[in-house]
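User: I've been trying to design a sequence by hand for this structure and keep getting stuck. Would you show me what you'd pick, starting by listing the structure so we're on the same page?

Assistant: Good idea, let's start from the same input. This is the structure you sent:
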């Protein structure tokens, strides 16, 4: 196996455990919809698409409306601010999966001008003070690259209820 490097083999409970790293190089095309969305994030703008039939604005954008299956092509810019719909606090550290050291929070934020929420990290927040309905604001990376994590995280809007 050319791409696999086995680090260790051990036995536990009568089973052989192979611990290793598999490297799988790949190229991924984001597609027309995600490319426009990511280009907008790179330019510090957040875009959604409006359904021509049910008028819902989807963020992140999709090619097809999940409610009525219409083709979506009307791009609209939405606000950097929105409402925290729900959240979860992560209390364990998994360096291969988690972008931050625990404890930290993920939330679903419905941006002003959108009808759907986007899942993202929450930063600059007191975790015990998080509550549904809080106003949140996108914080962009210093040097955006054109991907979902160009929004570094969402933070609570100061003074908002």
């Amino acid at each position: 196996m050319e791409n696999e490097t086995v680090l260790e083999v051990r036995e536990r409970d009568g089973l052989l455990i192979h611990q290793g790293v598999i490297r799988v190089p790949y190229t991924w095309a984001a597609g027309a919809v995600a490319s426009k969305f990511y280009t907008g994030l790179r330019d510090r703008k957040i875009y959604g698409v409006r359904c021509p039939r049910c008028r819902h604005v989807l963020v992140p954008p999709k090619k097809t409306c999940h409610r009525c299956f219409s083709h979506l092509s009307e791009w609209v810019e939405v606000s950097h601010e929105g409402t925290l719909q729900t959240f979860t606090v992560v209390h364990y550290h998994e360096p291969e999966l988690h972008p931050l050291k625990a404890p930290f929070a993920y939330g679903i934020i419905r941006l002003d001008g959108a009808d759907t929420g986007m899942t993202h990290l929450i930063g600059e927040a007191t975790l015990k003070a998080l509550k549904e309905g809080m106003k949140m604001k996108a914080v962009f990376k210093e040097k955006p690259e054109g991907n979902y994590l160009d929004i570094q995280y969402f933070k609570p809007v100061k003074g908002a209820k």
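That's my pick for every position. To get oriented when you compare it with your attempt: Residues 31-155 form one domain. The longest helix spans residues 31-42.
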